[in-house]
Design brief:
394 residues, six-stranded mixed β-sheet, 16 strands, 18% strand
Length: 394
């Protein structure tokens, strides 16, 4: 299953109908969330999708919400399924409790095959009609679902979920270890570095000015809405720059390397530190790892995550050395190993160790015995191998 996203330009009539569709889907989602939360708090009753669907049928019969029948029933029904998925993620996957959707935030609606028609590459949505889509790519299969959205900046996008076979990519021979950081976004074991674009830092002055202007506008006024759009457009530009850079970097890494090794960083824990939260969020380590994971799965590459507790920066990467420099601090960008005398760049040394440990752990997982390397600090390698994992072992 693969997704394609395109921008489209609705007519004024379609904008009105899309606004009604977004509002109806949002209203039903919030109504069902309140219904399920109240049932559990007052009666300790857990409602599922079937119960909320039956309650929605009765709700549509009430005169005060007759406007729910003016839009397609498909996205309204899909909002109940999305709420059920949110609760399943909360119960089983450790996600947060579902929250109410806001009118001023990102708006979306999903249409299944009963809510749209697809003929010769032309799309028509129920109650909305044909859309003026700007096609940048083409796919052969018929989409199974169509997702329509509107960003806070007022742009409209449409996403297709297509059961399409992915293009094959020739097997590569490269192996690379990646050390992620704030000063240097990614350091590779071959000595090269990749600096992060840091779009939030670059746009911070412009963003502060726009947010200050927004705070001065009277609530509910047209000028406030104009100021809100300016802030939303800046945020959208920041996200686009960050996403574009991550896509280009991860695609190049997947094309050139068969095995990629990274650290399993605790991004959520680092975000709790108010001194680091802004820089960590601007670097988007979590999104970088997510892109690498699904692209490696797409094209048959191997992604290995090593334990975050392994002292990759403090361990000498020279073969048959492995000295651990416990006195190394964050301010030390270079250090000389007292055991073998080799001078290391902190980030490059870490990436070399990450690659070596990842390959050793993968060989262990595939059945080849690899003993942990003894270091000269008097201890064996203390990284937690039980937490190291790879996407595919071939």
């Amino acid at each position: 299953m693969r997704g394609f996203q395109f921008r489209f330009y609705p007519s004024p009539e379609q904008k009105t109908m899309l606004a009604r569709t977004f509002g109806s889907a949002r209203f039903v989602y919030n109504w069902a969330l309140d219904l399920r939360s109240t049932a559990w708090k007052e009666r300790q009753e857990s409602l599922n999708y079937n119960a909320t669907s039956a309650a929605l049928t009765k709700l549509k019969q009430q005169p005060e919400v007759a406007w729910l029948n003016e839009v397609s029933c498909v996205p309204v029904q899909q909002s109940l399924r999305h709420l059920q998925t949110a609760f399943v993620n909360f119960w089983e996957n450790g996600a947060g409790y579902p929250s109410f959707k806001k009118r001023s935030g990102h708006q979306s609606a999903e249409f299944t095959r009963s809510g749209f028609t697809w003929k010769r590459g032309k799309l028509s949505l129920a109650r909305i009609g044909k859309l003026n889509i700007r096609w940048s790519r083409h796919f052969q299969c018929e989409p199974s679902t169509v997702h329509v959205s509107r960003t806070p900046a007022g742009k409209y996008y449409i996403s297709f979920r297509v059961d399409e076979r992915l293009p094959t990519m020739p097997e590569a021979t490269g192996q690379i270890g990646i050390d992620l950081g704030l000063k240097t976004f990614a350091a590779f074991n071959d000595g090269t570095n990749k600096h992060a674009p840091r779009p939030l830092r670059r746009k911070m002055a412009q963003l502060k000015k726009a947010q200050k202007a927004l705070s001065r506008k009277r609530k509910g006024s047209k000028n406030r809405n104009k100021a809100r759009l300016k802030v939303a457009k800046i945020h959208e530009t920041i996200a686009d720059i960050r996403r574009d850079g991550l896509h280009k970097l991860t695609t190049d890494l997947v094309r050139q390397n068969q095995t990629i090794v990274i650290e399993d960083l605790n991004v959520r824990g680092m975000m709790a530190n108010h001194s680091l939260a802004g820089a960590v969020a601007d670097s988007a380590w979590g999104e970088f790892a997510r892109m690498l994971e699904y692209k490696c799965a797409w094209y048959g590459r191997i992604l290995i995550r090593i334990s975050r507790w392994y002292p990759s920066s403090k361990t000498c990467s020279t073969p048959d050395c492995g000295y651990v420099n416990h006195a190394l601090t964050l301010d030390d960008r270079e250090w000389t190993c007292p055991a073998c005398g080799v001078t290391h760049d902190r980030d490059t040394n870490a990436s070399k160790n990450i690659l070596a440990v990842g390959l050793a752990d993968r060989e262990n997982a595939c059945g080849d015995a690899v003993s942990p390397r003894r270091n000269r600090s008097g201890r064996r390698g203390s990284h937690r191998r039980s937490k190291n994992r790879s996407v595919r072992c071939a």
